[in-house]
Amino acid sequence: MPVDDLTPAAREALAAAPPAPRPTPGAAFALARDWVRAGRRLDMAALAAALGVSRNTLYRWTGDRDRLLGDVVWADLALIADASSASATAPPGVARIEQACHRFLDLVSDQSAVRALLANEGASGLRLLTAPRGPIRPRLVARLAAEIEADVAAGAYAAPAPPPVLADGIVSLGERFLHHGGDPELNPDPASAKTIVSLLLREDERR
User: Fold this and answer.
1) Mean pLDDT by 10 residues, the chain (207 residues)
2) DSSP letter at 18?
3) Cα 132 vs. chain centroid, distance in angstroms?
4) What residue ranges do the domains of the chain occupy?
5) Backbone φ, ψ for residue 203 (5° rounding)
6) Contact, 156 vs 92, CB < 8 A?
């Protein structure tokens, strides 16, 4: 059959633009993260409209607005934590943990998603970042505690406190000096945070 011997229906279908890809939960998350990184306030109705889905579908995919915001910010913080750990050049032990923590503080102090969250959400954004049972703080504490515990278990670090306690204290210091209680007039102060984190990490010489 000749290539051009097509029915009108086939000819029209083949000439038309391919259909747009169907929206997915991953696309919803990616678009929300793009908006937050760009400093745009996350509006669930607008997000659903941009994706071409109902709000019920969006909520089924992502959870409520706070959950989605928390997951978006945590995704970026997890990437920063990965990069911070990878950048540490010291062997396992207090120096490596210190390097990773310092790098993390420097990067988070200039992190667009965190800045946008505090600027757009105010006190509720700060609660989302720092709530003991929220979507961000427990993950960060657990991740840091696991890194400390790995060096302790390897005999490379004599931690001055149990790793979960030490990690919780380090995260609290970071919150204090990077977020300043959500005060938009105060700039992040990673230098002060790094000084005190180094003091916290000092090895227990009695062990």
Assistant:
1) 63 67 91 91 96 96 94 93 94 95 91 81 89 94 96 94 96 87 73 91 74
2) P
3) 16
4) 1-63, 64-207
5) -70, 150
6) yes
How far is residue 26's CA from residue 166's CA, in Å, rounded to a whole number?
35
Sole residue written with tokens 């209680």:
181
At 69, phi and psi to the nearest 5? -60, -45
CATH 2.60.40 correct for 64-207: no
DSSP helix/strand/coil, 206: coil
Query: What DSSP state is assigned to residue 161?
Result: S
Closest CA to 140 of 176, 164, 111, 110: 164
Instruction: Return the pLDDT at 1.
Output: 46
How far is it, in rounded angstroms, from Cα 163 to Cα 197?
Answer: 14
Structure tokens at 43: 């509006």
Vertex 129: Cα angle to 126 and 131 (nearest 5): 90
Cα–Cα distance measured from residue 94 to residue 91, given in angstroms and rounded to the nearest whole number: 9
